[in-house]
Amino acid sequence: GAHTRGRCGIARAMARLDRAEEARLLHEAALALERVGMGLQLYEQAGNLSLGQQRILEIARALCSDPHLLLLDEPAAGLRYLEKKALGDVLRQLRDNPATRDIPVIFVTGLDSIEEEEKGLVLGAVDYIAKPYRPPIVLARVRTHLELKSARDRLKNQNAYLEAEVARRTQ
């Protein structure tokens, strides 16, 4: 999928004709893996990773596309205890990282207990949708969180502008 982030196109990417772009994209992939604690697996084939590592890899891959929202379907299904813990650590890192903390995370899951919902929210999810879900409800919740993110981004940009303006005027 790196060819979609590049400028040279799929044919040139496959033929490896633009080594500078290839190096830039590899660096970007390395940063994404570092962000989720998988920097050492940069050259490992995805099929050789455990299921938990594959889930985390998919989150890293999604982050490469600069998402406005992460919708995670059954994020912990089939994971062993340590893999769930690692996934939780990654979600906490995303929440604590200034570069990713403003990306809303929504869990979609078949687990419908209050404890599971609370666990998901503690890990950093902004919403928790239980299965079976109704598509109009999912769309409404996604739309709401995208609008909230957009409003927060506008306020952050306006705040930065005003702080710069105050600094400029007080010099």
Key features of this structure:
171 residues, mainly alpha, 6 helices, 56% helix
Task: Give me a quick take on this structure.
The chain is mostly helical and 171 residues long.
Q: SSE layout and pairings?
A:
Layout: H1 10-14, H2 19-35, H3 51-63, E1 70-73, H4 81-96, E2 105-109, H5 114-123, E3 127-130, H6 135-169
Parallel strand pairs: 1-2, 2-3
Helix pairs in contact: 2-3, 3-4
| Broad shape | globular
Q: What number is the mean pLDDT?
A: 87
Q: If you compute it from the alpha carbons, what radius of gyration comes out, rounded to the nearest whole angstrom?
A: 19 Å
What distance lies between the first and last C-alpha atoms, to the nearest angstrom? 48 Å
State the secondary-structure class. Answer: mainly alpha
E-strand count: 3
Helix content: 55-70%
What is the N-to-C succession of helices and strands? HHHEHEHEH
| Low-confidence regions | none
- Number of helical segments? 6
Strand content: 5-15%
Structure in words:
- The protein has 171 residues and is mainly alpha-helical.
- The protein is built from 6 helices and 3 strands.
- Helix 5 links the parallel strand 2 and strand 3.
- Helix 3 runs parallel beside helix 4.
- The protein is globular and about 55 Å long.
